[in-house]
Amino acid sequence: MAGMPRRARLVGRVLQRLEPTTNVPWHRVVNAKGEVSFSLSRNGGDILQRRLLEKEGIKFDASNRLDLERNRWLD
User: Fold this and answer.
1) What is the pLDDT of residues 13-69, one digit of tens each?
2) What Cα–Cα distance (Å) separates residue 68 from each residue in 14, 38, 74?
3) pLDDT: which is higher, 73 or 61
4) Are 48 and 27 in contact (CB under 8 A)?
5) Residue 39: what pLDDT?
């Protein structure tokens, strides 16, 4: 969607370097399976990401996935 196919790691590095006070809605970026990518290197950012998404009304299923068709960014 960002016009950069096969650049997931690049996107991840850019998001990881954002300032804490950024206005970029980084929490809306999930992986291709519709999951929050959990990692020890995120220092709890993955838990925060899920909470922010849930606060916006995003529902997760029993497999911790959100419905990408229902919640995708429409152009």
Assistant:
1) 888 889 989 999 999 999 889 999 888 877 888 999 999 999 999 999 999 999 999
2) 22, 18, 11
3) 61
4) yes
5) 82
Residue 35 is part of which domain span? Answer: 8-71
Distance spanning both ends of the chain, measured CA to CA: 9
Residue 21 lies in a domain: yes
Number of domains in the chain: 1
Q: Is the pLDDT of residue 1 over 60?
A: no
Give the C-alpha separation, 17 to 1, whole Å: 20
H or E stretch covering 55: helix 45-55
Other C-beta atoms lying within 10 Å of the C-beta of residue 15: 15
What's 22's domain CATH number? 1.10.10.10
59: left (phi > 0), else alpha (psi -120 to 50), else beta? Answer: beta
Is residue 1, in this structure, part of any structural domain at all? no
